[in-house]
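[Q] Does anyone have a clean structure-token version of this?
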Amino acid sequence: MCVQRSETNLLWRVGFIVILLAFSATPVAQGSMMTYGPYGEDTVTFLSVTEASGTDEGVLPLFDEPAVTGDSLIFTPSASFAADTSGPLADFTDGKLGILIKANGDQVIQGIVLEESGSVSLSADDENGSAMAGTFVSGPVFLSVLELDDVAQENPPLLITELVFSPSDGNWISSQDGFLADESWSGFLSIDIAGFLSDEGLSGNATKVLVTLDNGLGAWSQTGTAAHIDKKEFSIVVRTPEPATLALLAIAAGCALLLIARGKR
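[A] Here you go.
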């Protein structure tokens, strides 16, 4: 019997994402949260990095403390950031990461790039091959623009999006993908903050943002099968304008102020 991916693994994924979003809406107790930073660089400062989990707070850290390279943070997650199961069971691991970023001096935050990677394994030893196993990864992202041109926003604009995963759109099922042994997967998302603000009809540049990632790994299996998925790396890169672009922005801002002043005469 051929079972479509959308009829099995996606049902598990949707159910787990509902749980994941419920976790994201629930305040996390301070005792179950880990905080790193601040990390300061020439163009931006990572004011704080926090991580929590709706499922595995007892084994924190999951993401672990990042390494800093320029305007980038690189995380090497612990071995606990995985979902693993065999037999008629399911496992889910949720990792929540919050990154508060402030532009330094005259800098602005134009965009954010998120990348992650890991491995997935599926196996089955039942005689007729009818039993199945599957895994998935999900990564909803919430970006709040807290300051425009260093002015705090009373109602910060919020962008909700999600990492794009490959291969198989971040869903693997034994009936479709067969036997897998530590096969690599990756996730990617590039956020154009300047474009988002323009679409929202907002003027000014982002100078302080909060990026929240709810990363979920899920695995399910039936009798005679096993499934495993893990995360090996996660990174965030902050994009800021080149010096020449900053100069043009300053000129544009000056011209706008001049036109406003003339209009008031």
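[Q] Thanks! Anything notable?
[A] Residues 5-263 form one domain.
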